Amino acid sequence: MARGKLRVIELSAGVEGLELTEGAAKVHLKKDQGVFYNPVQCFNRDISTAVINEYLRERKEFIIQNKKSWEQRATILEALAASGLRSIRYALELDDEFIKEIVANDISKNAIESIRMNAQLNGLGNKIRPNMGDAVLYMYQCKSEGRYFDVVDLDPYGCAAKFLDPAVQAVQNGGLLCVTATDMAILCGNTPETCRAKYGSVSLRGKFCHEMALRILLCSIESAANRHGRFITPLVSISVDFYIRVFVKVEASAQKVKLSTSKLAIVYCCNGCENFHFQPMGTQVTVEQKTHFKNSRGPPVGPICDNCGGTFTMGGPIWTNPIHSRDFVLRLQQSLRSYTQLEVTDLPDFEAQRRSLESREQASEIDKLSVVTAENSNNNNNNSNISNNQDDCNRGVQKIGRTTVERGRFQTLRRMQGIVNVISEELLDVPLHYTQEKLSQVLRSDTVPMIKLRSAIMNAGYRVSSSHTNRTSVKTDAPSYVIWDIMRHWVKSRKIVKSAELATRQIILSHSIKTSVNFNERQDAIAPSMKDKSLRYQNNPERNWGPKARATATDEIEEKRKRLQGKKKRHRTNANNSDANQQNNVNEPREDKNDKESQGSSSVEPSGHSEVSTDLDAQHLTEPTAKKIKPESTTHAPA
Fold first, then answer.
1. Which parts of the sequence are annotated with region: Disordered (predicted)?
2. I need a labelling partner for 92 at 20 to 30 A (CA). Which of 245, 402, 486, 521 fits?
């Protein structure tokens, strides 16, 4: 498991916080600030650093070779910075020759204070500029003022759709747009109507849903860019853990924007065997070196599946062009080989440490650190820039005993190398994929070993690869009937356990086998990433490995939420208690003097009888409490 190093510290007198070390960055977080941080996404930040660094290196080479008059150092915008950890890591770990300035924007006042404090803590006062504002409005404002960014990074909590339109406008022509989406339930087909409303595409449920989620997001980014005369070129697209992450180059060209119809397609997926077919949104025809665009004709299938007799579900449109750039992936793969693994061993158990803080005496035994900048940051104006006094920043770093971490050292390097290796082997011109277990599930047969299945496809004269989105994926350019011929041959050559015959299975097995099937294993059917034992698909390293709770937007919103929480329930309770109090006064029996004297002479007060009970204000009681203290009858039960 690779994640940041956490420990409890004292930020200032009486103020406890957390010290986090991840990559080359060390940040402090106040416990009561509510700044969002998720250690699970350490891989996200690691791979983003490597991809951006490679992109900026490629950008600089392009400027030099083509003798462009562009600024060689880039400006980066992190539109939703939260704790600022990502921006700080970019500033520390990206090559200095590539970076001019990093703008860390967030709408939360607490987040901006955290960014300012941690930027000073790491000696980055001249490189990171905090900005408090709404991400959408800020990107629109930058575009209107002609201030563009070479890299725009979007890592929102949940859906990224509302940030895409301003982002494709705020990025420089030829710039890099990095987008994360964590709403996988929507993108993977649980609520297709919501996916259509947010991303403009209908999602489908299937074994290929994670790759389809990537293609839906790319389609949405392309559509947003096309509206402003721009188009995208995906460099790397990754589905991992509970989110997807894409890195696309955004360029301007009115002519190339017209090609977008041929990059998108509607998907027809069979409900029985999960065969899929594509209907392009448009076609392009080149005649005498002139390109003409025409409407696509369809549908590509009839109402009934030829393979199993099932019906089709329609989804999309999705991006059907390559989701990776082969050249860029190979460059990234080569650069990752030069990096080293950052071993994070013997880390303190944060949860155990936090539980041990039962008193101030126990807390004092832990290595406490005092940060002067934490006290000073609260006095700074929100719109003021970070202090440019580098000496003060360096002194702040020395106070926490910060140790320098070399660039190119990542805690998740082995996983990064494994995923990039699998991506480099993917068939880029083949959208979506089959899965090993689904093919066997449809026919109620035992599973075909992956090597035999891949060998059979290659022996039939077709290409095959895996997809990084699914460990049992089979991505191939073979027609669907070839895949099912291989499965029919496998089932008929095996002793299948008798089971209830399904109509789907009977129909599929009734077709004749037209393909020459050969299961002889081939050495080239074993992917290089299998041979070198790369970390291709990582299991969840711990429980609850997933998204965290959303951070609060602002102090005002949080205070309003607490003030209004349970408002309706309180009104109902007050009304019920008021009615109960009035009813008690009406039903209270009259007492004569003899009764009062007899009660007064008694040394034991009956249960539930007290003057306090009848005088309590019902407004301060919950409904169950009001019922509990309701006065009982003064008549004594017979002995």
1. 375-395, 530-639
2. 245
